[in-house]
Amino acid sequence: MSSHVSFAHVDTENAALVDEFLPVLKERLAGGVFIGGEEVDRLERRIARLHQVEHAVAVNSGTDALRLTFRALGIPRGTTGITVANTFVATVGALLSEGINPLLVDVGADENVDVAALEEAITPDTSVVVAVHLRGLPAEIAAVREICARRGVHLVEDCAQAVLASAGGVPVGAFGVAGCFSLHPLKNLGACGDAGVVVTNDDALAAELRLLRNHGLRDRDTVVRWGENSRLDALQASLLNVKLDHLEEWTRRRRDLAARYDELLADLPLVLPPRPEDRVHVYHRYSVMTEHRDALRAHLADAGVQTAVHYPIPIHRQPAARGGQLRIAGRGLAVTERQAGQILSLPLHPLMPERDLRATAREVRAFFESRPR
Ligand SMILES: Cc1ncc(COP(=O)(O)O)c(C=O)c1O
């Protein structure tokens, strides 16, 4: 019997909140403030508090959060920014758009930056390390911070997938000079359109970001920098404020569902997501690894279970990379490439019924049990 387990969840989440959204939207429409204003300020205060930092600066997207951070830090064009190849393209695209040359390093078993490879890759030309917390699992960020501090390199965290994740009790975003979040509709805290935010403890950086996101305007009539328009609109901020009321509960639910998958899949020949004791994973994605990924994915599709692969083509293998702007660190990207052929994201979202999770786990088991040993 086919199961019909859907991978996407944006519609379900928004449908569940529609009765909370509507009065807020009515109020905003009547209020007439559509750019910035109290809802944006409130969102910034709440995100700063949740991530235990001094400042949160809302911008138009996670990509802008990264780009404007690099610019606000004054990272010189032509220098090197180190990151990984198994991330959403925006991590690398943001470096390129600010004239910073990406150097890609390999990852470890946790799919995040390999700390030893990173240390080896830093040269006097390196200006910034962008550490991605992929799928909501923090990278080994305390070690990365130590290396960056010792080598005199900025650390920017790409927290796009990791709202509320933490390492050693410290929320992500507070380790680097800045943490950049995407609030894209598909993220754990997702707007109904594009949105992003930068968190930082650095007063000067926050002030610079506030200028850059609004044409460099110090006040209505005085331009002190060449900036741009990357403001968050008030309607999105008010929807995000509604969603924030549910975020902690929904994150707990994600973690409970992940623990349930871990239990149900434990004895199968699959690599399950790592669970390092000192890191809180928020399961933006629940991703397993197997050499039989494509066959498993086809089996699940036949059984009505939707899955996804994040990301099937590492960035250095993308057609755009033929232009030659990307460099690969000395050790190569063997782990990244191997994992790209093995990863599979199973359905997981906070409002997912337990029966969908059980049906998915049952079909994964059926796949392995039907294979010749
Ligand atoms: C790891 C990562 N970095 C950056 C981004 C860019 O965010 P946005 O789509 O909001 O520009 C995303 C999400 O799309 C992402 O997953």
From TrEMBL:
Q: Provide the positions where the record notes the PTM N6-(pyridoxal phosphate)lysine.
A: K187
**What does the record give under GO molecular function?**
pyridoxal phosphate binding; transaminase activity
Question: What does the entry give for GO biological process?
Answer: polysaccharide biosynthetic process
Query: Which Pfam families does this one have?
Result: DegT_DnrJ_EryC1 (PF01041)
Q: Could you tell me which CDD domains the record lists for this protein?
A: AHBA_syn (cd00616)
**Signal peptide: which range, if any?**
none
Q: Can you tell me which residues form the catalytic site?
A: K187
Which UniProt key words apply to this protein? Aminotransferase, Pyridoxal phosphate, Transferase
Name the family the entry cites: Belongs to the DegT/DnrJ/EryC1 family.
By what name is this protein known? Putative aminotransferase
Q: Which organism is it from?
A: Streptoalloteichus hindustanus
Q: What is the lineage of its organism?
A: Bacteria, Bacillati, Actinomycetota, Actinomycetes, Pseudonocardiales
This protein's encoding gene: aprL
